[in-house]
Amino acid sequence: MQKLFINGKKELSGKISISGSKNASLAILAATILSSTSKLVNVPLVEDIFTMIKLLKFIGLKISIKKDKNEININNTNKKIKTLAPYNLVKTMRAGVLVLGPLLSKYKKAKISLPGGCAIGTRPVDLHLFALKKLGAKIKIKNGYIVADAKNGLKGANINFPKISVGATENALLAAFSAEGKTTINNCAIEPEIKDLVKFLNKLGGKIKIVKRKIFVNCAKSINRRISHKVILDRIELGTYLIAAALVGKKIIINKINPSFIKSEIQILKKMGVRISVKGETVIILKSDKIKKINVSTQPYPGFPTDLQAQLMVLMTRAKGQSKITEKIFENRFMHVPELKRMGANIEIINKTAIISGPTNLTGAEVMATDLRASVSLVLAGLVADNRTVINRIYHLDRGYELLEKKLKNCKARIKRV
Ligand code: EPZ
């Protein structure tokens, strides 16, 4: 098993480039089931993407990757499509459940392994199934699989989500794409990744509009033959490097960003005293000495994202006084806390709130990654801690961060994979 070795306290300076969005790419890859020929560019070459490609190939799509160009070409003209997503491919990558909607929409049936839980929570899919039933699908759960069919095709409907869910919104969109008539999705998620999926579906022939937290879908009759799409940048990777810069940056420059994706993050970092400036598509972070305490709750977009909660907690260890971070999205997303405490962080958890007292000097230690975002918070802690930090189980990192060591080394970090 590979490990990461980090010698901390090295000031970072330089430019960091942000890769394409893992989560937008996963939803759009699922959507290529609806297309015949698609080219995706700016796709991050990370493990979850390769797992999704494996699943689409199993279903019967022809896929080629041009690694040097972060480009994926998908060809879906195969007549023998398997409308099945097997357990071994869904258990490690929950987003595999996103093939349910397009398979139902195009082939009127699907058998998808229930994704099961993961380190951060039970990860139910009841909202996904709720939406598909509204569109007329018959759904049974059998031997750990979702068995869905819509013999006479899906019919447009009014879907009122009781709770905001990114994945359920995506599955509802992908199913409603070719559902007869009109569909309205209320109380939907509006993350930038959802908007990028809508952009892709509209290129495909969809007539989809997002207005506040409502999505209006008109059935797509004609499907465009060949389309290409550039995936948006990864706002969580961007937020991660902004926090790294706030922790140990001297001067970090990140170009070609879309500041509207990270409004809440920039607001919070400025409130914490981070010297951050945005000019057009460039963000610059300068050495920030006095980090101020703050209280934050994770929220659906455009609130502060749960995927940056672990990373912000590391910055809070540098703040004077007590900071609080409340995790409102997932039920078990504090797995990084015991590891950060082993590095000297002073953190107490009361229900869903972590109370971080600072400033504390973190010390290097041997630690273990547990999930994607917890593992990157340990990298951030290693960068700011004294001595050496060794991070185990870094396959979690490889699921969602492209060229992490290279990007940090380019800014003079002392980090190596062994
Ligand atoms: C997506 O997960 C992202 N994953 C997650 O990123 C992200 O943390 C999450 O959205 C929230 O922003 C991908 O896009 C592949 P949800 P998803 O449905 O869709 C509950 C990362 O690190 N819920 O918005 O699974 C659920 O348990 C990953 O890149 C139901 O109750 O998240 C959670 O408490 C981690 N029933 C809440 O809703 C359902 O049917 C939000 O989950 C579905 C979800």
How many independent structural domains? 2
Tell me the overall shape.
Answer: globular
Question: What is the top-level CATH class of the largest domain?
Answer: Alpha Beta
Distance between the termini: 9 Å
Radius of gyration: 22 Å
How helix-rich are the residues, as a percent range?
25-40%
Oligomer: single chain
* Proper CATH architecture of the largest domain: Alpha-beta prism
Per DSSP, the total helix count is 14
Hetero ligands:
ligand EPZ
CATH superfamily of the largest domain: Enolpyruvate transferase domain
Counting helices, strands and paired strands, the structural category is alpha/beta
Question: Strand order within the widest sheet?
Answer: 22-23-1-24
- How many beta-strand runs? 24
Q: What is the averaged pLDDT score?
A: 96
CATH topology of the largest domain: UDP-n-acetylglucosamine1-carboxyvinyl-transferase, Chain
What is the strand content? 25-35%
Contiguous runs where pLDDT drops below 50 for at least 5 residues: none
**What kind of sheet is the major sheet?**
4 strands, mixed
Describe this structure in words.
The protein has 418 residues and is α/β, with parallel strands linked by helices. The protein folds into two domains: 4-18 and 234-417, Enolpyruvate transferase domain (UDP-n-acetylglucosamine1-carboxyvinyl-transferase, Chain, Alpha-beta prism); 22-230, UDP-n-acetylglucosamine1-carboxyvinyl-transferase, Chain. The chain contains 14 helices and 24 strands. The strands form six sheets. It has a four-stranded mixed β-sheet. The longest helix has 14 residues, at 235-248. The model has no long low-confidence stretch (mean pLDDT 96). The structure holds ligand EPZ. Ligand EPZ binds next to helix 1, helix 5, helix 6 and helix 12.
